[in-house]
């Protein structure tokens, strides 16, 4: 064999020896699994039953007409590069959240920003701590950085085990993800617990509060990360326009952090990554926040209904502060997901663990609840 076959990351290549050397860090990397799609367009509509996609925590409402109009007119200029600094969006965010523009950074979705954070903090030999199970992007982007994942199991109650996470910190720890509320379990962290944890983290370790579902939180005992970051230079808050604001397909998210961290995020950003369409849609969405938040309120109402009915059916449902619910099904996970699909809803199975079900339009939730009721009877 040629000498390059000996270095990690150079397994047999379909092009034989002499192929490009790829980084060993990419070997055996978990692949991001997008939620399964509902049958598309005409073809799907012609099939019965209609499939509802409850697998990606998307907003089921179509774009607001005003936001759609803004995007459509911005599309007339897509021969031009976008505003690289996202200046209009930063000004809007700064006013909306009462933070200086220097404390803001944008990216292609908050996953994009999370990847920028890793590029800014972690390299081979470093450690990144997060709860598990949590957001499936964390292991992927950590592995790409070359750093080592340190996963701390959730408690029996599907909560972050913050004491164990604090104890897992070593001198190699560079970044800690705290997903609040947690994807896929929906459970949020009480303010006092989070503050106690933050007080235990050394000031040279970055804590990333991933608040992708913040707008769905109704428990007043859950802190807003933007209050917590203000006097904590090692805290960074991630937010997204993908969920509550319904812009998942346009890819725009942002971070709030003190200047050195925000500046590092600007250095690690893909130049021109956030399209002009996304920037203008995000601005228009913030200006239509009243209407959007009414939709969020309706989804929160559906979450309450779905959770209550599941509990009445006999399921143990952790209290969700997000736009999804979690059912721990263990070995029956795939079977449950298949039953949902046969009935016309696509959910998100984590084989051997459980199913995450996005709260969707009420027709979709009704179908899901019927499936859950029938399945529940087979468990006793
Ligand atoms: C959906 C989600 C995101 C946001 O992803 P985008 O890249 O902004 O679309 C971030 N974190 C968590 C935990 C999520 O569930």
Shape: globular
Q: What portion of residues belong to β-strands?
A: 5-15%
Structural class: alpha/beta
Please tally the β strands and state the result: 12
Order of helices and strands: HEHHEHEHEHEHEHEEHHHEHEEEH
Q: What does the largest sheet look like?
A: 7 strands, mixed
**Overall mean pLDDT score?**
93
Distance between the termini: 58 Å
Our count of helices gives 13
Share of helix, binned: 25-40%
Radius of gyration: 22 Å
Low-confidence runs of at least 5 consecutive residues: 1-11, 41-48
Give the bound compounds: pyridoxal-5'-phosphate
Topology diagram in text:
Layout: H1 41-46, E1 52-53, H2 65-74, H3 87-97, E2 104-107, H4 109-121, E3 127-132, H5 137-145, E4 148-153, H6 162-167, E5 173-179, H7 191-200, E6 206-210, H8 225-228, E7 235-240, E8 253-256, H9 259-268, H10 276-287, H11 289-313, E9 324-328, H12 333-343, E10 345-346, E11 348-350, E12 354-358, H13 362-379
Helix pairs in contact: 2-10, 3-10, 4-5, 4-9, 11-13, 12-13
Bound molecules: pyridoxal-5'-phosphate.
Task: Give a short synopsis of this structure.
This protein has 380 residues and is an alpha/beta fold. The protein contains 13 helices and 12 strands. Helix content is 38%, strand content 14%.
Describe the structure.
The protein is of the alpha/beta class. 38% of the residues lie in helices and 14% in strands. The chain has helices at residues 41-46, 65-74, 87-97, 109-121, 137-145, 162-167, 191-200, 225-228, 259-268, 276-287, 289-313, 333-343, 362-379; strands spanning 52-53, 104-107, 127-132, 148-153, 173-179, 206-210, 235-240, 253-256, 324-328, 345-346, 348-350, 354-358. Helix 2 runs antiparallel to helix 10. The longest helix is centred in the last third of the chain and has 25 residues, at 289-313. The protein is globular.
């Amino acid at each position: 064999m040629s000498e390059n076959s000996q270095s990690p990351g150079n397994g047999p290549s379909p092009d034989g020896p002499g192929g490009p050397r790829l980084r060993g860090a990419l070997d055996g990397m978990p692949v991001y699994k997008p939620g399964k799609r509902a049958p598309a367009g005409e073809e799907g509509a012609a099939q019965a039953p209609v499939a509802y996609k409850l697998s990606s925590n998307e907003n089921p409402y179509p774009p607001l007409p005003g936001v759609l109009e803004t995007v459509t007119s911005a599309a007339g200029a897509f021969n031009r590069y976008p505003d690289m600094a996202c200046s209009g969006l930063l000004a809007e965010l700064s006013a909306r959240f009462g933070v200086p523009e220097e404390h803001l950074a944008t990216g292609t979705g908050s996953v994009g920003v999370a990847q920028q954070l890793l590029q800014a903090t972690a390299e081979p030999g470093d450690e990144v701590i997060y709860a598990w199970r949590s957001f499936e992007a964390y292991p992927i982007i950590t592995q790409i950085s070359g750093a080592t994942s340190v996963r701390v199991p959730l408690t029996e109650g599907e909560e972050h085990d913050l004491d164990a996470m604090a104890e897992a910190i070593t001198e190699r720890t560079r970044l800690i993800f705290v997903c609040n509320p947690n994807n896929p379990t929906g459970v949020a962290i009480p303010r006092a617990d989070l503050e106690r944890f933050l007080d235990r983290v050394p000031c040279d370790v970055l804590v990333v509060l991933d608040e992708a579902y913040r707008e769905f939180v109704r428990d007043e005992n859950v802190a807003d990360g933007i209050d917590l970051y203000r006097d904590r230079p090692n805290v960074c808050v991630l937010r997204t326009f993908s969920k509550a604001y319904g812009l998942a397909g346009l890819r725009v998210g942002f971070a709030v952090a003190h200047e050195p961290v925000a500046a590092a995020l600007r250095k690690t950003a893909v130049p021109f990554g956030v399209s002009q369409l996304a920037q203008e849609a995000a601005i228009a969405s913030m200006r239509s926040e009243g209407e959007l938040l009414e939709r969020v309120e309706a989804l929160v109402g559906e979450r309450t209904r779905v959770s209550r009915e599941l509990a009445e059916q006999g399921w143990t449902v952790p209290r969700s502060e997000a736009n999804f619910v979690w059912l721990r099904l263990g070995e029956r996970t795939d079977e449950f997901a298949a039953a949902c699909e046969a009935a016309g809803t696509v959910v998100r199975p984590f084989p051997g663990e459980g199913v995450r079900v996005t709260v969707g339009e009420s027709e979709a939730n009704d179908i899901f609840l019927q499936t859950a009721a029938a399945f529940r009877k087979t468990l006793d």
